[in-house]
Amino acid sequence: MNIKRTSFVIAMMGAAAATAALALSACVAIPKGAYAVKPFNKDKYLGTWYEVARMDFKFEKGLSQVTATYSIQDTDKIRVDNKGFNKKEGKWKQSIGKAKFVEGPETGRLKVSFFGPFYSGYNVIAIDPDYKYALIAGNNLKYLWLLSRTPDMPAEVKEKYLAQAKALGYKTEDLVWTDHSAL
After folding, report:
1. Within a domain: residue 18?
2. In the prediction, which pLDDT does 22 show?
3. What is the dihedral of CA 121, 152, 64, 70, to 10 degrees?
4. Which family does it belong to (predicted)?
5. Which of 22, 24, 41, 53 minimizes the C-alpha distance to 180?
6. 141 lies in some domain
């Protein structure tokens, strides 16, 4: 192989690697104008959260009674246990994943994976001082969750979080409000 061809092949491989790295890092992004909670208390965040509302997507479509339970998996990982009831199928669905901090445990910016090496952004962009209610942004405006330590959230907290999400560009009218009536 001549030097020009070798240089070209090396340059193409480098460009491909850079493109792949950029594509993967974009998956753990935070929506423009959103900021992760800082300081963030990982230990206070652990435990079970009820999904109050979400932007619907294929992995949660048709689910009710959705919860997410976070626990320590490793020194630098959090175990994520999501479950919800599919009324149509009459059975529970569960997904176990892992989360890692993007900027360190003092910032509510994580990346979550349920499928091998592929991560998505999980950004805690609002939380009350007692860690009872949280607003979570995904890596773009297609993913948003309102979470609570109980199946419901006070109207004033809900309104505050909806206003914050709307200001970032979320179409809050598209939110699916999670049914917890069978609990």
Report:
1. no
2. 36
3. 40
4. Belongs to the calycin superfamily. Lipocalin family.
5. 53
6. yes
Residue-number span of the structural domain to which 63 is assigned: 28-177
Long-range CB contacts (< 8 A, 24+ apart) of 40-43? 40/105, 40/106, 40/107, 40/108, 40/124, 40/127, 41/131, 42/78, 42/101, 42/105
SS (H, E, C) 34-78: CCCCCCCCHHHHCEEEEEEEEECCCCCCCEEEEEEEEEECCCCCE
Asked if residues 123 and 137 have their Cβ atoms less than 8 Å apart, the reply is: yes
pTM: 0.85
Identify whether 7 is part of a domain. no
Q: What is the pLDDT of residues 139-180, one digit of tens each?
A: 999 999 999 999 999 999 999 999 999 999 999 999 999 999
Q: Copy the structure tokens of residue 50.
A: 């009820």
Residue 49 has φ and ψ, to the nearest 5°, of -125, 140
Q: How many other CB atoms sit within 10 Å of the CB of residue 113?
A: 18
Task: Quote the radius of gyration of the chain (alpha carbons, Å).
Answer: 19
- In the Cβ-directed half-sphere of 121, how many Cα atoms lie within 13 Å? 27
